[in-house]
Amino acid sequence: MSGRTQGRVIAAHGRHYTVELVDGTLIKCFPRGKKNDATVGDNVEITLQGHNEGALETILPRKNLLYRSDESRSKQFAANVDQLLFVIAVEPQFSDDLLGRALAGAWSADITPVILLNKIDLVDGLEAARVKLAPFRQLGVQIIDVCAHDPEQLNTNLLPLLAGKTSLLLGQSAMGKSTLLNTLIPKAQAATQMHSVALGAGKHTTTSTRLYHLPDAGGDLIDSPGFQGFGLLHLTHKDIERGFPEFTTHTPSCRFYNCTHQHEPGCGVLAALARHEIDAARHALYIRLILAKSAHESHYS
Ligand SMILES: Nc1nc2c(ncn2[C@@H]2O[C@H](COP(=O)(O)OP(=O)(O)O)[C@@H](O)[C@H]2O)c(=O)[nH]1
Ligand SMILES: [Mg+2]
Ligand SMILES: [Zn+2]
User: Fold this and answer.
1) Alpha carbon nearest to ligand 1 atom 13, residue
2) I need a labelling partner for 217 at 20 to 30 A (CA). Which of 136, 211, 241, 261 fits?
3) How far apart are CA 140 and CA 114, in angstroms?
4) Where are the domains of the chain?
5) Mind listing the pLDDT tens digit for each residue in 55-65?
6) 267: CA distance to ligand 3 center in Å?
7) Which residue, among 10, 37, 36, 39, has the nearest Cα to 22 in the 3D structure?
């Protein structure tokens, strides 16, 4: 095999990538030169070399890219994503800080977020989880109840939403991302387990991001390892504000056009906060993001 062709990155392994060609052939690709900034979901141009190997030449223009960044590094989650499926569960407890950050990241990258509330069979904790989700429901984010062990239920509640789209499963570990994936795409199971056993990570630990095809619905599902933090230092002030769509009805009444909604007099957002029309935890998250950004900028200027 030789020559130029195009494909899609379906897995990133650090040093090399797995690129899938249109006919389904998998090619092990090494980046040309030192640059290796491709990510799962990228459409790429490659040069075939030898048996099912190739060189990754260029990344084709992206529709979007979801990533996080903190002081020490940034990490790309995936590119060309239609929707973010943020998985939380009745148990263990989920972090509303991480959820809020993921939503802000998605909105600022023009990716539609959907919350999957998993493990609804654990009925004892269900009500508490719903209460904790109320501020997010109020934002108009679609919340879908699922039980990852129940294929019938997933086929009815979730599958129609996935048809023809690329969806990224994201969330803290133990929320049930891999279980969801394996129930929807039984063929994925073997691949995940072989890979993590080979790396000594244990049978059920997802160690890398990978894209899988839905068997009938004609869409793709990307599974990713759990994460502890979701820094958003790459966002501008404007991007951060876009992560809080509930502010937009109140910002027009801010006295200053460049109001940052922290302490300014005549701020419409702070007034709405005082009237409990904006959730206090959400505004606190907004302030954390703004302050982290300012600290980062003053450190590097
Ligand atoms: N009761 C219940 N347990 C679930 C459900 N989905 C996943 N689990 C369990 O939760 C644990 C973590 O699941 P896993 O898919 O590995 O989570 P991940 O880290 O997000 O990929 C496993 O023990 C699963 O069997 C569910 O809908 N109900
Ligand atoms: Mg997993
Ligand atoms: Zn304001």
Assistant:
1) 176
2) 136
3) 10
4) 2-59, 65-223, 237-299
5) 999 999 999 99
6) 4
7) 10
